[in-house]
Amino acid sequence: KSANPQWREQFDFHYFSDRKDMLDIEVWRKDNKKHEELLGTCQVDITALPMKQTNRLELPLEKHPGSLLMLVAVAPCTGVSISDLCVCPLGDPSERQQISQRYCIKNSFRDMKDIGFLQVKVLKAVDLLAADFSGKSDPFCVLELGNDMLQTHTVYKNLNPEWNKVFTFPIKDIHDVLEVTVFDEDGDKPPDFLGKVAIPLLSV
């Protein structure tokens, strides 16, 4: 119930070379769980922003009243990666030893922001729900940790997809929960939900 909301949320988007250069933003209002209304959209051209500094942007909403105030910083990606199983970042024994040394007890106060990182191997899914009329699905998998999000490629026409991808996240809060969600790609429409699992970091 506010015309001037303050969210104060930070989101980290991991920008890879195969992504488009425009950041699309939508503002919605919600009456209840069933009714939502689009209040406006705006775009940010990532390539036009200077690197390694915080850019204060006031963006007017297209075709709607109001504007969105945000801080956007573009910086080199550190601690995050997507790779195939054959080039797994922790597969090398010498690298594992360096990691163990970096996070041993005597070094635990060297950098208070460097809590650690999480590596997740997404292998496959089995017996997924058929979302298409053909009796198949076009599944992809989304991993979320805090406000970080990475996703696999889509495996088309398959209820038992194999992704075989390795995802690495920096950990910012040891109390975060890793959420792994499987969706069915549906063209230009929003993807269909196929299932979800939540894994608290403290349980790993």
TrEMBL record:
Residues 1-59, 93-204 form the C2 domain. It comes from the Eukaryota. It is found in: Membrane. GO terms for biological process: regulation of neurotransmitter secretion. One of its GO terms (cellular component) is synaptic vesicle membrane. Belongs to the MCTP family. This is MCTP2 protein. It comes from Tachuris rubrigastra.
